[in-house]
Design a protein that fits this description.
The chain is α/β, with parallel strands linked by helices and 260 residues long. The chain is built from 10 helices and 7 strands. It has a 5-stranded parallel beta sheet, sandwiched between helices. The chain has a two-stranded antiparallel sheet with strand order 1-7.
């Protein structure tokens, strides 16, 4: 009898694994389609008072948002129209790739460099010691080229509905480990770190995943980026960096989205 029970249990577990893996493949394909359609937000304002450089991964691009204007970069421009925004973020970029984005920047001196990175290093299991070195080098180089540097990474990757057990637990543990390194390095380099990590009971995205996540259930949707932007505004005291002037936006500028 016990033998049959074991066989049944193995069958159930195997069926669960096949079902969840199939769903994950579907979500990965959706994510690739979303990434292919995404364009990073940029704002070219020749007379802008403040210059912003965005570098990073798909979260810097705004992948998953309904439109580029709903990304973090787009929301910065919405609230602070006297900025120009140059955006070199790329889908799939890891920390090792982002130094190259900084090298591609057109200016040597920015008012703000916003770094949105880390998610791909969590997902692809970049060695923690190597990741720490890469992050430190990037932050040091960024501090040398901007008055302010803000580093914003991802939330709790393991809680994304795209994943299933045991990946949920593995990626949550992995996110905690990466987050602790990021916080320590940012503090050591005098860089503002925006902490988006939440435990399961505290994560607002889980209250309504369809609202906060994109269709791949991994990237934030427009509402997810809104939550991230509000955290950025609060934790980094964004209003103090850009004196707000909604009544006198720059005229003659052009909004654009960069082709990949």
């Amino acid at each position: 009898m016990m033998r049959y029970i074991v066989v049944i249990l193995i069958g159930i577990v195997a069926g669960y694994a096949v079902f969840e893996t199939t769903l994950l493949v579907v979500r990965v394909r959706r994510g690739l389609a979303i990434s292919a359609a995404s364009r990073p937000f940029e704002a070219n304002n020749p007379g802008a008072l403040f210059s912003v450089l965005v570098i990073g991964d798909s979260t810097g691009v705004g992948t998953g948002a309904t439109g580029p204007e709903d990304s973090v970069a787009g929301r910065i421009f919405r609230d602070y129209p006297r900025v120009s925004i140059e955006n070199h973020a790329e889908n799939g970029a890891r920390m090792a790739d982002i130094m190259g984005q900084l090298d591609e920047a057109t200016k040597q001196d920015y008012h703000l460099i916003l770094i949105q990175a880390g998610g791909n290093d969590i997902l692809r299991w970049t060695d923690l010691s190597l990741l720490e070195q890469q992050t430190r080098s990037l932050l040091q180089a960024s501090v040398g080229r901007a008055r302010h540097v803000i580093f914003i990474s991802t939330g709790n990757v393991g809680l994304a509905p795209a994943f299933f057990w045991p990946l949920t637990g593995l990626y949550t543990t992995r996110t905690r480990a990466v987050r602790s390194r990021f916080i320590a390095v940012a503090k050591g380099e005098g860089v503002t770190y925006v902490d988006l990590f939440r435990e399961r009971r505290e994560d607002p995205f889980l209250d309504d995943p369809a609202r906060y996540y994109a269709k791949d259930l991994l990237h934030p949707g427009s509402e997810g980026y809104r939550v991230w932007y509000e955290e950025l505004s609060k934790q980094a005291h964004l209003a103090s960096l850009f004196p707000r002037n909604r009544k006198s936006p720059i005229t003659g500028g052009a909004l654009k989205t960069r082709d990949p």
